[in-house]
Amino acid sequence: MNVFDLVVGDIILLETGARIPADCLLISGQDLTVDETFYNKGENSRAIKKDMFTTDSDSTSDPFLLSSTLIATGVGKAVVCCVGENSRRGVTDEKLDTSSKTPLQKKLENLSGIFTKYGIIAAVLIFAANMFNMTISIMADSSWDFASMKTMKKVCEDLTLIIIVIIVAVPEGLPLTIIMSLAYSVMRMKD
């Protein structure tokens, strides 16, 4: 029987090495122990003994079998109590979150912002230095004036240089480059 065809009330057979497909209640079994490290995040790696369900109010036995846990030893029968999203697995599984950024993406954005900031600062400093240089040249050369075509051409060249510096400083290809280098490193580690 397919695991996806299970419904509440089905009786399933359990044996050593099997993974429990749904939340169940143990109705019969011998020496049944279950590894529940899937739910306790590895804190308790020992197998937990499971006993049959009884109506005795003084009983301290644990007849509940959680989905995705592993039968460590023994055999038994259990009745399915919860399936799918209603099971413990459906409640505890974290959904894949594609909207938030990974730590690598956050660091890359931070690094990209730093490159951009320093690029803009460098562009402004270059422009200021070129304007200062042009002003000194105009003052030193009496044939050159502020309103001439030569001056406008020099200002346009300086503005073009600033735009180039800013475009080069914004690392659009940085995330792709780092991802490709990480993929290459993983392939090298695999060999």
Explained architecture:
- It is a single chain.
- Helix content is 42%, strand content 18%.
- Strands 1, 2, 3, 4 and 5 form a five-stranded antiparallel β-sheet that branches.
- Helix 2 (103-140) packs antiparallel against helix 3 (149-169).
- It has 191 residues and is of the alpha+beta class.
- The protein has two domains: 3-92, Calcium-transporting ATPase, cytoplasmic transduction domain A (Distorted Sandwich), CATH 2.70.150.10; 103-190, no CATH class.
- The radius of gyration is 35 Å and the shape is rod-shaped.
- The longest helix is centred in the middle third of the chain and has 38 residues, at 103-140.
- The protein has helices spanning 88-92, 103-140, 149-169, 174-190, and strands spanning 11-14, 23-35, 48-50, 64-65, 70-82.
Provide tags for this entry.
Calcium-transporting ATPase, cytoplasmic transduction domain A; rod-shaped; alpha+beta; five-stranded antiparallel β-sheet
